[in-house]
């Protein structure tokens, strides 16, 4: 298949490149992703991509930003003001995005997310928390607490990278009787119900810290 001449823009822009890169990772996974394969997909010379995005690291950041924009769009449509509503809406949007892009998701969990779309979402949350009178230290800790849970939980349930939830392994009741006795309470692994239940615990921890420290 013929390519365009080296260095020509080929009608590309950052958004088109990022969208194609997301689709490629969704299909083939991160381990097979590279600038040359993306160029082949777009039918351009790799230099045409470098004209818009400077290197593979920047391209991975563009992929992250593209899928995070899906979460931001959902939050913008709802526009809640209460910090817990913002946190819950963001968490559900993040979960839904992860299920749509399970092969992209490890990028979000393993790379610092400092794009404008990521920082805007965090700014909205921490502003609402401060306006509600939560202590500054609690507000400062909240993003790491929330996304530490979200990233760890979603990596666990989507560990197969297929968008299908991995099954919980069977537990040997003789060796681990207490764990086996609790197994029925862990049914629905990866379900919305389980997600909400555990996320409520995370939010409860933030509220508890705020109560202990008092308002600003």
Short structural summary:
The protein is mainly α. The protein is built from ten helices and no strands.
Walk me through what this model shows.
The chain has helices spanning 14-28, 35-42, 46-50, 56-78, 83-100, 105-110, 116-131, 136-157, 177-182, 192-213. It is mainly α. Helix 4 packs across helix 5 (83-100).
Query: How much helix is in the residues?
Result: 55-70%
Radius of gyration: 21 Å
Question: Beta-strand level of the residues, as a percent range?
Answer: under 5%
Number of strands: 0
Major pleated sheet: none
Structural class: mainly alpha
Q: Choose one word for the global shape.
A: flat
> Which consecutive residue ranges, at least 5 long each, have pLDDT under 50?
none
What are the secondary-structure elements, in order, as H or E? Answer: HHHHHHHHHH
- The CA-CA distance between the termini, in Å, is 64 Å
Mean pLDDT over all positions: 89
Record the SSE blueprint:
Layout lengths: L13 H15 L6 H8 L3 H5 L5 H23 L4 H18 L4 H6 L5 H16 L4 H22 L19 H6 L9 H22 L3
Helix pairs in contact: 1-4, 4-5, 4-7, 5-7, 5-8, 7-8, 8-10
Relevant terms:
0% strand, 216 residues, flat, mainly alpha, single chain
């Amino acid at each position: 298949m013929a390519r365009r001449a080296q260095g020509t823009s080929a009608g590309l822009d950052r958004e088109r490149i990022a969208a194609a890169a997301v689709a490629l990772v969704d299909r083939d996974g991160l381990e097979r992703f590279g600038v040359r394969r993306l160029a082949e997909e777009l039918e351009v010379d790799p230099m045409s991509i470098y004209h818009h995005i400077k290197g593979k690291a920047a391209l991975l950041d563009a992929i992250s930003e593209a899928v995070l924009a899906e979460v931001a769009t959902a939050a913008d449509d709802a526009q809640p003001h209460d910090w817990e509503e913002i946190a819950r809406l963001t968490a559900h949007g993040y979960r839904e995005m992860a299920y749509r892009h399970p092969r992209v998701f490890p990028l979000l969990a393993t790379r610092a997310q400092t794009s404008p779309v990521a920082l805007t979402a965090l700014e909205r949350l921490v502003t609402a928390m401060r306006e509600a009178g939560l202590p500054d230290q609690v507000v400062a800790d909240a993003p790491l607490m929330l996304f530490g849970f979200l990233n760890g939980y979603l990596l666990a349930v989507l560990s197969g990278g297929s968008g299908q939830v991995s099954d919980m392994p069977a537990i040997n009741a003789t060796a681990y009787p207490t764990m086996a006795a609790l197994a029925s309470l862990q049914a629905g692994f990866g379900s919305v119900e389980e997600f909400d239940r555990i996320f409520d615990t995370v939010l409860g921890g933030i509220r508890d810290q705020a109560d202990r420290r008092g308002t600003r």
